[in-house]
Amino acid sequence: MKTAIASMALVGLLLGASSASAESDAIQQLAEEKQCLSCHARDDDTPRAPGFNSIAAKYAGGEMRGYLVEVVMTGGEDHWGSATMPDADERVEVSEEEAGQLVDWILSKHEE
């Protein structure tokens, strides 16, 4: 009986991890489609822009989530030293829902 319960718990954990992995893969694909990865790297800073891990560390806690969603949607400057995001008319359009998904994904990097 204990073995069956342990096996069921392991299957549940694996299914949960598989679901989270699939969701992360989908958001990574969204980041590619929206050309975020043209400037940003997942792990490290680039000459053009901070990496997602650096962004997650700077904005840990999520208090600035709304601000970050706006930055993803509109671009601009003055949010990361001398690095500037292209203005909205210079890049692929990102909806508020997509921006929220991307920001949540980026902020989750701080928890990994």
Structural summary, described in words:
The protein has 112 residues and is an all-alpha fold. It has 4 helices and no strands. Helix content is 55%, strand content 0%. It is globular and about 35 Å long. Residues 10-14 have low confidence and may be disordered.
Biggest beta sheet attributes: none
* Tally of DSSP helical segments: 4
Which structural class should the secondary elements be placed in? Answer: mainly alpha
Order of helices and strands: HHHH
CA-CA gap between termini: 34 Å
CA radius of gyration is 17 Å
Give average pLDDT, whole number: 81
Corresponding CATH architecture: Orthogonal Bundle
Keywords: Electron transport, Heme, Iron, Metal-binding, Signal, Transport
Protein name: Cytochrome c-551
InterPro entries: Cyt_c-like_dom, Cyt_c-like_dom_sf, Cyt_c_ID
Structure in a nutshell:
The chain is mostly helical and 112 residues long.
Structure keywords:
mainly alpha, Cytochrome Bc1 Complex, Chain D, domain 2
Describe the secondary-structure layout.
Layout: H1 2-33, H2 52-58, H3 65-74, H4 96-108
Helix pairs in contact: 1-4, 3-4
Signal peptide: 1-22
InterPro entries: Cyt_c-like_dom, Cyt_c-like_dom_sf, Cyt_c_ID
Keywords: Electron transport, Heme, Iron, Metal-binding, Signal, Transport
